[in-house]
Amino acid sequence: MQYLLMALVICITVGIYFYYFFKRFFTLFRLADKPKVKKRCSLLLALVCAAGCVWILGLGAVLVLHFLAVCLIMDLLNLLLKHKMKSEKSEKCWSFLYRSGLIGVLVVALVVGYGFYNIRQVHRTEYTLETVKPLGQELKIVQISDLHMGTVMDMSKLREYCGKIEQENPDILALTGDIFDERTSREEMEETAKLLGEIETTYGIYYVFGNHDYNYYSITPLYTPDELRSVLTENGIQVLEDDVVEVSNNLTIVGRKDASVERREMSELISGVNKDAFVLLLEHQPVNLTENASLGVDLQLSGHTHAGQIWPTGQLNQLIGAVELNYGWKKIDDFQVIVSSGIAGWGYPIRTGGHSEYVVITVSEH
């Protein structure tokens, strides 16, 4: 209901604004002499823009809302500049730029071009952490999150990054959800699981579901969660769904079901865990950080946020409390959490917020 209300408000606002924008735009042409035609064309184009925002997470909404933002800035500049032009030539030039929306088109093109390039530049992000727990030796963890296979990355690129990750000689490979989504084909899912499962580690590869992995957002899913579990398991990837794995006397891994589905309480799940061991929590969404800190978790690895794939959504979500941590590292007493921006993105191959990454974490005794 909240989503529908927000979409309705945005569509109405966009429709009204662009009706008047296109009426102004058509004054550049002879169509201005035909008021009825001008109104009909303006209304039609405004409805097209509004329709593009019905799915507010879609590429159409991204393009329209970016264009709207630039146009609003142009409106403000017009109020400030229109009576301060020093010559008729400069006034005509500004009038054309203002009424045509050309600057808005150029800015949107630049933003989209940057986003298309940026999402494909995968960074190696490294964290060096300390713990008071007796690990015995350094622990190296590599985290991959939010691949959304098929949206951006193909198999050849994934193979390249799997090779780089294997060269890290990880003790643990943590796959923290949304490695797949509703657009991932069955073939892509199987090939991806095979590639990831071939990465050599000391203690294994562990997978937790993200909200998109379940394929609940698709009317006709290409495979079921059970089929995904089966394929992952067949490739040596251990799927954790409210499960606890005691890797050694010094290391315990807790893997959660995604917060979007029914699951056990964390306090119940962790009640029998040896708190003298280092407790690593894999949780797709960065939620319940204060609670997890109080329950004796040492390190939580999460994704989900994409660091705000389209700027400034991530910053706004954290500001209003929609997410507890949009990106990066945070410490609460002896508890630490890392939220990855993800190795790719969801929905469309554009990222203007943050960067794509895989995460390399080294944990040593303090």
Sheet with the most strands, sense and barrel status: 6 strands, mixed
Distance between the termini: 49 Å
Shape: elongated
**Alpha-beta classification:** alpha/beta
Number of strands: 12
What average pLDDT do the residues reach?
93
Cα gyration radius (Å): 25 Å
How is this structure best summarized?
The protein is α/β, with parallel strands linked by helices. The chain has helices at residues 2-25, 35-52, 59-81, 88-100, 102-118, 155-167, 186-197, 225-234, 266-269, 289-294, 313-319, and strands at 122-131, 139-144, 172-175, 204-207, 237-239, 243-248, 251-255, 278-282, 299-302, 328-332, 335-339, 356-365.
Describe the protein in words.
The chain is α/β, with parallel strands linked by helices and about 375 residues long. About 40% of the residues lie in helices and about 20% in strands. It has 11 helices and 12 strands. The protein has helices spanning about 1-25, 35-50, 60-80, 90-100, 100-120, 155-165, 185-195, 225-235, 265-270, 290-295, 315-320; strands at about 120-130, 140-145, 170-175, 205, 235-240, 245-250, 250-255, 280, 300, 330, 335-340, 355-365. A 6-stranded mixed β-sheet has the order 1-12-2-3-4-5. Helix 9 (about 265-270) links the parallel strand 7 and strand 8 (about 280). Helix 1 (about 1-25) packs antiparallel against helix 2. The longest helix has 24 residues, at about 1-25.
Keywords:
366 residues; alpha/beta; 11 helices; elongated
